[in-house]
Write a structure and sequence with these properties.
Distance between the termini: 20 Å
Number of domains: 2
Strand content: 5-15%
Radius of gyration: 21 Å
CATH superfamily of the largest domain: Type I PLP-dependent aspartate aminotransferase-like (Major domain)
Number of strands: 13
Structural class: alpha/beta
Length: 378
């Protein structure tokens, strides 16, 4: 199978990730729950994972790195901490349902959308400036669109938020492991990210970088302050009720090490090169519409396209039958499609990883061309 759906989950993991998970399953119990070696090893591994993440993401203290189930879990914590019934919230026009659904679940929230055309970060910035000038309680921005790979000007948006005294939540689901993510420099209240995408960790892992006091969505045992019936008021215990996913955390640690060892710019450069090469191949095909920034200046290695008169879901299914994995439809981000004008059709999304080869992209393009020219699989 040629796997081109890494924006959903990186299927190909470094070998060290798999080894670490298998080792943890047989050697680690729960961190902070015992005075025996299996518990100590779990505690040491969890701390090393926090420390690795803190160094990579400019977090002042490892304790500010909280383990979550995924980015959605972290975003729910962040949103439900800062957004109250009646709040006014400004968001970008490219937010995922992981942001918009929690907002719609809180009563009487006024949502201001900073609309901007694809690959025009300066217009996104001006949209945030206008919305913040109207008065806002919270700002939320995805660093990179999961549909189109367009990069949002988070650093400048963070500066605007600071000047207005508005807390910022950043969804780094598509940027962590690819672009610099800097909690301290941005002074964001929270940054949420999954472990299973650009960090090359396993599914069921995520990180919430905390620069603000948070509320817990779960209460329960933490291995600390056990006599009191309220959750501890210190991080990370405050947000980590129950037993940790130690095989996942051990795998995530190795994923973080892989990213740091390989280098953000090396990974980003490779993914962008693969996506840009795919864009050039697809642009030559009849009836294909490619959503790409000129020279990929404001785009990561995530690429969407449509084919005139063809249903995107059918294209995805036909490609799957030919051994090629892509993501078709609305990609859980109808707001992004509404902003880009593709809500009625959706798109087919191609997203390579650090392990994708040029030969695989060539094969994908050849198969798609044959399908279009011969009307095969539609």
């Amino acid at each position: 199978m040629i796997y081109l759906d890494s924006a959903a989950t990186t299927l190909q993991k470094p070998e060290a990730v798999r080894r670490a998970m298998a080792r943890a399953a047989g050697t680690m119990s729960s961190p902070g729950r015992g005075s025996y070696p299996a518990s100590h090893l779990a505690e040491e591994t969890a701390y090393r994972c926090r420390s690795e993440a803190a160094e990579l993401f400019d977090v002042p203290s490892p304790e500010q790195v909280v383990f979550t189930f995924n980015a959605t879990h972290g975003l729910n914590i962040a949103i439900k901490t800062l957004v109250r019934p009646g709040s006014r919230v400004v968001i970008s026009g490219y937010e995922h349902n992981a942001v918009t659904r929690p907002l719609h679940g809180i009563s009487n929230v006024e949502i201001l959308v900073a609309d901007a055309p694809l690959f025009h970060p300066e217009k996104t910035l001006s949209g945030f400036a206008e919305a913040l000038a109207l008065g806002a309680d919270v700002a939320i921005c995805s660093h990179v669109s999961n549909v189109f790979g367009c990069v949002q000007p988070v650093e400048q948006i963070a500066r605007l938020c600071r000047s207005h005294g508005v807390p910022l939540i950043v969804d780094a689901s598509q940027s962590a492991g690819v672009l610099p993510v800097e909690l301290k420099q941005w002074d964001a209240a929270f940054v949420a990210m999954p472990g299973h995408k650009g960090l090359y960790g396993p599914q069921g892992t995520g990180l919430l970088l905390c620069n603000h006091q948070a509320i817990s969505l779960l209460e329960g045992g933490t291995g600390s302050a056990s006599l009191q019936q309220e959750m501890p008021d210190f991080l990370p215990d405050q947000l980590e009720a129950g037993t940790h996913n130690m095989p996942g955390i051990a795998g995530l640690l190795e994923g973080l090490r892989f990213v740091r060892r390989t280098g953000l710019y090396t990974i980003a450069g490779h993914e962008k090169n693969m996506a840009a090469y795919a864009a050039r191949r697809l642009e030559k095909l009849p009836g294909v519409n490619v959503f790409a920034d000129k020279e990929f200046q404001n785009q990561t290695g995530v690429l969407s396209f449509t084919v005139n008169g063809r249903d995107c879901e059918e294209i995805g299914e036909a490609l799957a039958q030919n051994g090629i994995a892509v993501r078709s439809g609305l990609q859980c981000a109808p707001l992004a499609h509404r902003t880009a004008g593709t809500l009625e059709t959706g798109t087919v999304r191609v997203s390579p990883s650090a392990f994708t080869t040029k030969g695989q992209v060539d094969h994908f393009a050849v198969v798609l061309e044959r399908m279009i020219r011969e009307n095969v699989g539609f």
